[in-house]
Amino acid sequence: MQVALPKRPSRVALRRLEWPLFILAGLIWLAVAAAQQGGREAVLLTVQDAITPATADYVIRGIESAEERRAELVVLQLDTPGGLDTSMRSMIQAILQSDVPVVSYVHPAGARAASAGTYILYGSHIAAMTPSTNLGSATPVQMGGGGLPGMTPPEDAGEGGDEKAAESSDGGEDAGDTPRRGGDAMERKVLEDAVAYIRGLAERFDRNADWAESAVREGFNLGAREALERNVIDVVAEDLSDLLVQLDGREVMVNGTSRTLSTQDIEVVRQDPDWRAKLLALITNPNIAYILLLIGIYGIIFELANPGAIVPGTIGSIALILAFFALQVMPLNYAGLALILLGIIFMIAEAFVPSFGALGIGGLAAFTAGSIMLWDDPNLNVALPLIIGVAIAIAGFSIWVLGRFLDVRRRRPATGYEEMIGMQGIAKEDFESTGRVFVHSELWTADSRRPVRAGQAVRVVAIDGLRLTVEPIE
């Protein structure tokens, strides 16, 4: 029995395989080089304002980008007075779930990580600060500001506050035993939730949980050096270069895995907010969202009052959609929105059902009150000068409408030919006493006490039957 041996590939076939193999090898080499290069990058994100939905979107997408680039670490540069609780928690969740270590760095000198910024520092793999910066004031704040309603502010929340914090963190009386002060059940729930949250973050990264609790309960603050001494942060660095030098060789736990950072001569890739983040930040600005809401409402009203105008309806619809998007992602106070709408309805009703100012004044008061309480967060308020300016403009419009109404009420009703008094026309011929004029699309016989030239403009001053009395307009 003969067995057929496989034919040896010809040289032509081998040559045909050479180029695909070369291309495949080149692609593999590029992929390996890109991966090695990606691991030597530090992605720099900057937050220099209040924590808003736009901030959270920017940071979350920045962390995702760093993971795709296989960066060595993410540096989140902070200078924030605080912000929205929901946005802050979204950012911290993204940091905790990140496969890339995140270093929160309060910088430059004079910057702060107050309120929500303190939570972000505690929730980062590494917390760092520049000298002459501070963190703290992490007490949750309700509408009305000034700390949690019902909570008695500490008499010595300044320098003495640091002394009390030192007692709690240096083995003195535990911060958890701090006497609980006034406030109703809801306020107490908010406070206890914040305490439990920041203590959990502190324990996860082995930081000072007692001082974290005092920062929430009492609103204490710390400078960079004190924060390092009390194990609140991990590093104090003069600038970004100093920070990267100090981080080189440091071990950090990322998703339960120990990693050693290699930051010597690392490339820093700055990732600024793109157009999407800038647009989101713009329309979620409380003042911009407020203006968009008013433009949208009045645009629709003008379109309904003048069907077919198109422009007011188009602009109003776009502005209203953008405003609704902002209202969706921001802490809206529905009572404030209802008062704004009620105020606008009252002021419009004043033009159709005149109440000699009652509806107008009531509408203005409701509109102003609703504008002040529109956002259910003390960090997001419409600027008072803007509210006053809009209220004055609306009040002026209402007064103008009311004045027009009263002026019409004072006029003697004009019917029939009497409506022609005051109308203007054109003389059809020269005349000194009697001649023909064209008024109201009709040819009339008219008398005049002064000479009139053909083509000269005339004004009707009286009417007697089918005869007009006119005067020339010089």
Summary, kept brief:
By secondary structure, this protein is α/β, with parallel strands linked by helices. It is built from 15 helices and 16 strands.
Summarize the structure in words:
The protein has a 6-stranded parallel beta sheet, sandwiched between helices. A 5-stranded mixed beta barrel has the order 12-13-14-16-15. α2 (53-69) runs parallel beside α3, α2 packs antiparallel against α10 (275-283) and α3 runs parallel beside α4 (116-122). With 474 residues, the chain is an alpha/beta fold. The chain is elongated and about 110 Å long. The protein has 3 domains: 39-273, 2-enoyl-CoA Hydratase, Chain A, domain 1, CATH 3.90.226.10; 277-410, no CATH class; 416-472, Beta Barrel (OB fold (Dihydrolipoamide Acetyltransferase, E2P)), CATH 2.40.50.140. Mean pLDDT is 81; it is low at 143-182. The protein is built from 15 helices and 16 strands.
